[in-house]
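hey can u check if this looks right to u? its 396 residues, i copy pasted from the old doc so theres a chance i mangled smth
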Amino acid sequence: MRVLGLISGTSHDGIDAAVVDFTAGDASAASGVALQGTVLASTSVPYAPELRARLIAALPPAQTTLAEVAELDTLIGQAFAEVAADIAAEVGEVDAVCSHGQTVYHWVDGAHALGTLQIGQPAWIAERVGAPVVSDIRIRDITAGGHGAPLVSFLDELLLRTRGGVSAALNLGGISNMTVVRPDGLVAYDIGPANALVDAVIVEHALNPLGYDDDARIARTGRVDEALLTALLADPYYALTPPKSTGKEHFHLGYVHEHLAAQGREIPVEDVVRTFTELTVQTVARDVSAAGIGFLAVSGGGCRNPLILDGLRAALPGTQVVLADELGAPADSKEAILLALIGWCTMHGVAAIVPGGTGAREPRILGTITPGAGPLVMPQPVPGIESLILAEAPAS
């Protein structure tokens, strides 16, 4: 089954897509199938500048209207549909799509997630591609007591389960999240901001047209402001016990302004960018060290920031820090691959969460399904996934 995964993450800068061709082994095994996935194509398409600007303007803590939410739901759904149609045409066809959409609000009260909202109307994708679309994947986990995040822990556990010792997968998007796999179980959670605060500062000051610190060019010109960093590290979120989740409802531009105002002095913007970059390094390194992790596979946009990656390697001399490519999941498209995997699981009746990863009481089948051009025909259910091997298609 060819499944197309689509996602725009907490950096809300564009749409990542990947088509994975899944082949399952013997479905009669009680423990589940041996699943092989070949990544046929992947891409990342920036949002149109005007659409991204409207999206940013509507995100918390800003006030918005239901009319704006409805319009963004359509416009983002259409943007996802365009990307889906293009990559589906590139590989010939797809059997199903799984779209994460764009998170605009994640409702967390203390230690509990109570709701989440992703927009990007999936019917536009189904209409354009003609295949059934799995969407709205996080809320089912929340109804079972989970945080709805980090869902990537399901993929991480499959890729890391045979390594032995303590290993982990780290994703550095707008928010940093980590899956820790031990011989006796798994825990996964959001660590804190990765790129979210740096991106917010760069956009506010128009430091470059990209909206992020490409190759850490801006941070390299600044220095770490130790007083600001100390104040940032005192945020109570870091002391919460996993599983836990967070997002731009907490770590946003207003958060930056509050901390800068509390310093009562002018701090050069380059120093602000450098300090928030160091915040990511220190919060991640602290948790990796505390967990005794020997192997760390990194993905997400932040893994392309040399100050972050080199900073982690310097702070963690006893940990092997590599890109997620070594696990068969290319670092730049891992989350889109996850969405393709969740889509395959939902179509085959397989729960795609690990309770230790999200805090859910029990595993649940995720998402809702929008039919494609014809009747909705579901594949034969399978009991689960015993193993997963990912590979990229050989270059033609």
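The chain has a mean pLDDT of 94.
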